[in-house]
Every structure is written in structure tokens, then in C-alpha cells.
Specification:
The protein is an alpha+beta fold. The chain contains five helices and 14 strands. Strands 5, 6, 7, 9, 10, 12, 13 and 14 form an eight-stranded mixed sheet that branches.
């Protein structure tokens, strides 16, 4: 198992931030997820600690106690060297439906023109690629998806919108993502996902985890309307494939 040059620093009285090399890299993300699993299974009580992985970091938050930073830092370095034999959690490829109808895809034509591509080609590129969930945040259930083809890289909008619709699928820089609820936002909107990404009423409000994969597929407006009804009554079945990792 490769050992990365990690850094550890205090993140307030109740948290520490562990950082890996500042790169968007699947191997680094895998090491972060493996270390989190090792800590959960061998070192820290999951009910006492919140562990938040992201692109190249892992934040550890003690829900009750103040952390003795120097002592905990030394312990973490030892645990990192000892991380072996950990059972990683199951990970999945989730296939999510997106309607690219121009009623939803309010920036699609502008994005296509800016990138010198046809609308059909933008949709083809977006649906043929498999994305990695590198982080979840900003809004509950907002997935930061890495692995965007260079042909789809487009800057954030210069003027963010005050309201972006729930389910809006956007592009920004090297990422794509889905707005799980209506909110302000500056991403370029190219479609809308017809199924709820975050639902506080579910046992697991966000079904996706960091390290999972996402692949989009195009649906018609009629299919979109059907999925919305199925999602509202709780009978929509998410398509997922178990990954070998």
C-alpha cells in the first residue's frame, strides 16, 4: 500500500484536518477512504466521531470532547503507517437519468457554442463518461463529480443565478454536479436529474458516498415526468452496479 506524505493540522478545538497531496487523483481518494475505514474499524468510535472525506483531505470531528492536538497528531501518524487489512465499504456505480430538454438545459446551447460543439455532442460526452464522487457538500447531497472530459470544461458563470432549480445538472471547470435542492448557483446548467438526490425522510438521506461512481443517461420529457411522480411517492428504483475495488 502506497504511503503518501500527509499533513495534519488543527481545525478548531474539536477537529483535525488531514491533507494528502493537492491533486485530483483516484488513488489518493482511495487511500483517504481506506484510512477512514481503518479508523472506523480499529481506532475511533464511529458514534463519537464524524469523518468527512473530500478530494485530498479527511476531516475528523470529535462530537463532544476537545482534542489534545499534539498527542492526537502523533497517534494519527502512527495509525496511518499501520493501516493494513482494512475492509473497505461497498462502492457502487449509480446510473442517473437526466433530461436535456432545453426547458431545463438553460445554458446548454451557450455551452455548446462556447466549446465549439453541437448540443448532441455535449450530451453524448456527458452521458458516455463515468464520474467519481470526490466530495459531498455546499448543500446536503451536492456531489462534486470529477473526471470531466476536457471537451466539456467550461468556467463558472460570471454572474451566479439567485435561483437554480432542484435537480439542475451543471458544469463548472473540471467538474459536473447536481443541485439537490433549489439554491443560488453559478454552474452552467445543461439538464435536470428527474430523481431526488437528497431526501431527509429517507433512512440514508443521500444514497451516494464519496468514492462511488456516477453515470448519466438521457431521458425524454415524458420519462422525466414519470420519474418525478415515482420519486414523490417513493417508488423510484435507483439503478446501481456493485464495483470491484
Amino acid at each position: 500500500m502506497m504511503e503518501y506524505p500527509i499533513s495534519i493540522r488543527s481545525f478548531g478545538e474539536h477537529a483535525v484536518l488531514i491533507e494528502w497531496p493537492n491533486e485530483v487523483d483516484d488513488a489518493i481518494l482511495e487511500d483517504i477512504i481506506q484510512f477512514r475505514s481503518f479508523l472506523k474499524q480499529n481506532c475511533l468510535e464511529p458514534q463519537e466521531w464524524e469523518m468527512v472525506p473530500a478530494y485530498n483531505s479527511l476531516t475528523l470531528i470529535d462530537r463532544e470532547r476537545t482534542i489534545d492536538y499534539q498527542m492526537f497528531k502523533a497517534q494519527l501518524k502512527t495509525w496511518y503507517r499501520e493501516r493494513v487489512g482494512v475492509k473497505s465499504r461497498l462502492r457502487y456505480l449509480w446510473k442517473l437519468p437526466v433530461c436535456y430538454d432545453l426547458d431545463f438545459a438553460i445554458d446548454l446551447e451557450e455551452v455548446a457554442e462556447r466549446l465549439g460543439q453541437s448540443v448532441a455532442r455535449i450530451i453524448e460526452l456527458h452521458t458516455s463518461n463515468i464520474f467519481t464522487v470526490y466530495g459531498i457538500g455546499f448543500l446536503p447531497g451536492f456531489m462534486y463529480l470529477g473526471g470531466l472530459p476536457k471537451e466539456l470544461e467550461v468556467p463558472r458563470r460570471l454572474e451566479p443565478r439567485q435561483k437554480v432549480a432542484k435537480g439542475a445538472v451543471g458544469l463548472a471547470g473540471k467538474q459536473t454536479g447536481i443541485y439537490p435542492q433549489e439554491s443560488p448557483g453559478g454552474w452552467n446548467i445543461i439538464g435536470n436529474c428527474s430523481v431526488p438526490i437528497f431526501d431527509a425522510k429517507r433512512e440514508e438521506p443521500c444514497f451516494v458516498n464519496v468514492g462511488d461512481r456516477i453515470q448519466f443517461y438521457a431521458i425524454s420529457r415524458a420519462e422525466y415526468d414519470l420519474h418525478k411522480i415515482q420519486g414523490e411517492v417513493g417508488i423510484y428504483q435507483f439503478e446501481k452496479i456493485k464495483l470491484d475495488v
